[in-house]
């Protein structure tokens, strides 16, 4: 898996504020949104385009436009929803599919409670949004869903990732055979015994939307 850890002072600045336990929910949502917009720039580096001509007030110019089929953005509910608008800002014509997953906090296994994806993803570029890549169970399950439907180009966008989660995705991808790119604002030290990213930012879903 190609892993891009964003290296930009604005991203580091916003990520630091996001980590701060005194940052309130409205500010957390705004920062997550801003961070995703910055990450989306890197994540869409290989988005497919086709050449077009436009007429400027002066002359004809060669340009490009996003080509069909449209990219598919897949936020993993709940916390991934906090990243959707930021991604759509850069890819307004993308379609959106949904996966609802919650992690069993004892086994860390993901439980899928909702799935609304197009049946056929052949030839589609897919962008999976989830702020946290911890054990990697949720992202691995999401990748399996997409690959089963034909996706062959997957980019995961996260705010934070743990080395354990990255290693798990890399191991699973060997049997899947589809390349995946990860774009993240930060690669942290490790997971703790509760499966939380250290130093991390806590529970992303709770900080975005409240404790459930
Ligand atoms: C969080 C997070 C990821 C998952 C990461 O979701 O948003 O989806 O945990 O953990 P993993 O890499 O170990 O699978 P959570 O289960 O807390 O659900 P939520 O988004 O509804 O809060
Ligand atoms: N899910 C979160 O929201 N935070 C973590 O640190 C790990 C999983």
Automatic annotation (TrEMBL):
Cofactor binding, note field: Binds 1 Mg(2+) ion per subunit. The magnesium is bound as Mg-PRPP.
InterPro entries per UniProt: PRTase-like, PRTase_dom, Upp_B, UPRT, UPRTase/APRTase
Keywords per UniProt: Allosteric enzyme, Glycosyltransferase, GTP-binding, Magnesium, Nucleotide-binding, Transferase
Pfam families: UPRTase
Activity regulation annotation text: Allosterically activated by GTP.
Family: Belongs to the UPRTase family.
Protein name: Uracil phosphoribosyltransferase
Organism name: Aeromicrobium fastidiosum
Gene from which the chain derives: upp
């Amino acid at each position: 898996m190609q892993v891009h850890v964003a290296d930009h002072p604005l991203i580091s600045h916003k990520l630091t504020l996001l980590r701060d336990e005194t940052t309130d929910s409205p500010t957390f949502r705004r920062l997550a949104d801003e961070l995703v917009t910055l990450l989306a720039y890197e994540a869409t580096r290989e988005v497919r385009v086709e050449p077009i001509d436009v007429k400027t007030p002066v002359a004809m110019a060669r340009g490009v436009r996003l080509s069909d089929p449209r990219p598919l953005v897949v936020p993993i509910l709940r916390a991934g929803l906090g990243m959707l608008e930021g991604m759509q800002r850069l890819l307004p014509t993308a379609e959106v599919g949904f996966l609802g997953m919650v992690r069993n906090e004892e086994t860390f296994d993901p439980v899928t409670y909702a799935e609304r994806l197009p049946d056929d993803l052949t030839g589609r570029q897919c962008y999976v949004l989830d702020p946290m890549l911890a054990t990697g169970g949720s992202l691995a399950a999401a990748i399996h869903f997409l690959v089963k439907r034909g996706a062959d180009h997957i980019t995961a966008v996260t705010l934070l990732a743990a080395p354990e989660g990255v290693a798990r995705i890399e191991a699973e991808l060997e049997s899947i055979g589809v390349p995946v790119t990860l774009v993240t604002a930060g690669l942290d030290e490790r997971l703790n015994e509760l499966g939380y990213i250290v130093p991390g930012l806590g529970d992303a879903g709770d900080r975005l939307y409240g404790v459930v």
